[in-house]
Amino acid sequence: MGSLLPMPNEPHKFLQIYFMGGEDSGSALANRVNARCNYNNLDSLYARRIVSELDALLNEHNELLKIFKSHMHQLQSDNHAIVINPDKTPAGEHIRRFNAPVVDDVAGIMVGDCTAAREIVIRRRNNNLQFIADTSFI
């Protein structure tokens, strides 16, 4: 499926087209129609009208699209960070449970079907995205 966000300086593709600008604005609809028509080399007025009506139909009735859009809002507003301050261990906790890392490793736990393929993306401090193979152990 790919990322819901395009890579920097890349055009929106596939599902990313649904997340161009505000969903309810006329300019967002025009951008989505243009992206689809340009990608498929459709330049007739009738093709644009059909694509526009299909877009409206999908936006109104497609439950999966609604789920994708709710995740997109989460991605855009997600400013969370993990901060480890070893000097502030919570009361009643073991003193070494909240130690600061001593190496530059990142670990994560993924709940769910471990056999399914997944896309792992790390956003670096410089805002570059790094794609990690789901089979990577390093």
UniProtKB/TrEMBL annotation:
Question: Superkingdom of the source?
Answer: Eukaryota
**What is the name of this protein?**
Helitron helicase-like domain-containing protein
